[in-house]
# Entry
Amino acid sequence: MKTHSKKLIVLLTFLGVFCCKESSKNITEMTSSDIEKLDKLLNFEKFRPTKVKFKYVFIDNSGQNERLSVPGPSDYYLEALLEFDSITFTKMKAIEKDMEWIEQNHQKEAFNFEWLPQHIQQELDTSNPNYKGHPDLFFNTGSNGKIWYLNNKILIKKYSN
# Structure
């Protein structure tokens, strides 16, 4: 039994190393504070933030850059912090109040991105524990977008299926 366990551990380790090397060739990761770059991923036509910070991960599964046994659709993941002036944020909240939407059962822990500044993490930690989250009503993330409102700030998670 011990021999089989050792063989399994060696095999899993080998596969893990092999998979990681293969997948790292097709992964592009970007962390930025460039509003123009984020504007290409989200729609800022209705409400433009004054400041942003985001992390975007793109996994190219097309097979164009390497041999994949089964090419498929590419995947992405976006985490973003959008900051707004108080007038813009008040307008957003007013429009959001008049719209009908189903409560989202997001957990605030899911928005505690590792790269967030400490003061934003603290604001998230102390945010309303009964808050039910909002769907994305403004930035066109579709059903793959989740939003958490803070004070003049929005945290967004967007991902592919």
Q: What stands out?
A: The longest helix spans residues 2-24. Helices lie at 2-24, 35-39, 86-98, 118-125. DSSP finds four helices and five strands in the chain. The radius of gyration is 20 Å.
